Amino acid sequence: MRYRMTHLALAIATLAAGMSMAAWAEYETLAEMGYPAPEAGELVHVPPTMADLEEADLHPELKKVIRRGYDLFTDTQQLRGENVFNDMNCSSCHLGEGRQPFSAPVWPAAVTLPNFRGKNQHVNNLEERIAGCFAYSMNGTPPAYGSDDMLALSAYHRWLATGAPMYPDEPIYGRGFPPPERPESLSYERGEALYVEQCAICHSDDGSGLYENGEYVFPALWGDGSNNWGAGIVRTHTAAGFIKNNMPLGQPLSLSDQQAWDVAYYMTQQERPQDPRYSGDVDEVLEKFGATFHKHSSYGQVREHDGHRLADHANWGEKGDIVPWNVGQPRFEDLED
Amino acid sequence: MMRTVRIARGLSLLLGLGLASGQAQAQQEGDAERGQAAAGTCVACHQADGSGMNVPGGESWPRLAGLPAGYIAKQLHDFKAGRRENASMMPFASMLDAQQIADVAAYYSQMPVTDAQGGEGADEALLRRGEQLAMRGDWDAYIVSCKSCHGPGNAGAGATFPGIASQHAGYIETQLRAWQAGERHNDPQNLMGAIAQRMSDGDIRAVSAWLANQSVASD
User: Fold this and answer.
1) Could you tell me if A32 lies within 8 Å of chain B, comparing CB atoms?
2) B142 and A99: CB-CB below 8 Å?
3) E strand spans, chain B
4) Of B109, B139, B157, which residue sits at a domain end?
5) Which end of chain A is more exposed for a tag (fewer CB within 10 A), N or C?
């Protein structure tokens, strides 16, 4: 139970729950940096590190597979041309190797699934959730369910969740990319100016990021090297949440809420590969997903300053005509209500 | 092409700080041959092969060989203008005009990376910590890895982020401490300063020793 704690009466709770002070100390750094401290009733979990893995009492075969999962997570580019068709790694968005609170830590997926998922309107397990990232965020097509690579990635998620309770009732501390409060108005122009000033030194003026010696250093924020129009981070609030809590690298929470939203607005109003759910007509996609997923994105919108209609194209990026096999895959069609 | 773009970016930062004189300087093309002639005074410390020298207990002279030209040029301009303070470098940088700075930067950037000193004798635990910080970081302390900006193998990324693998331990230590103390602040957007603030003395020694022990293959 070292993973459960309350903010109030911390010391008492700590003693009562037997939670290690070291674990709390890790997140105390976050609180000092300006992140909210855990609230009463929140589930706080400090995932183990890869150094902990070496000490852990696990079968050597499992350790090998977890190490492989870590390697895939932090260097997903090794699947380039097979499963990945852009310049991203899992760890491009899930900072701190998928462990970091407020950077969409990935362990919650291992303790909350199988569960219903709004995005594809059916029950997903961990593998299917990971497959979604390949289809959208990696602009690719997933490794097969049960394959070595998929199993290794699942095993890494499971390792990070070590000690966390299954199907927790409590809200999870630091889950997702919590967005700051949306300001009254968003400005493309202000976002662009801020981008040039604070982001472009790493991500470059054209958003293409930076490669060095054939290896990714800074991820592409838009364009063919980036996630496609179906990825979660094309939603303005998700992008704002990522930016506010994680950027510039090493200086989280340094932008105001307005700045985070403006730069997110600017970034999500750039072109990127088509949403794999596109059937040849932007309006058809909007008909299906405009009230749900794309309600939060700029998909199909006409950009004010140049009249460009976003996502009105059949550019799939580097993957060309490869269709991710998991998108639109039916599930449980024969079950009665 | 990328190099040009990067230098232009450094330039817009200079301009952003209201240092309009940066424009002509940063766009100047460097010539390595002319740079060799202009580098006559540099070799006393930075050596003919650009390897610099680790000076235990004193001021270590950084390896310049193989550093990005844009980075070297920016440092020289910064020494000259007092944006980076260093009593040894100030007079030498001031002797160079903008063209000579571009030339010297081109000259050193084209040299093969040399080996570094100062990491000898570091114990295994220190090196393990150094490797962790350099390659993976310590996110619980919000120390992102060196590699995340300094590139694959910490051999540098673009014109902005210098290679730090195979740099002298004494130099890296001094610089990180200078950032911590607020004595060095010419990094773009405080990217290095923010991280240095969170590093312990042990972290600084560990990462410096580990980086000094890495060798970098030049292309």
Assistant:
1) no
2) no
3) none
4) B109
5) C
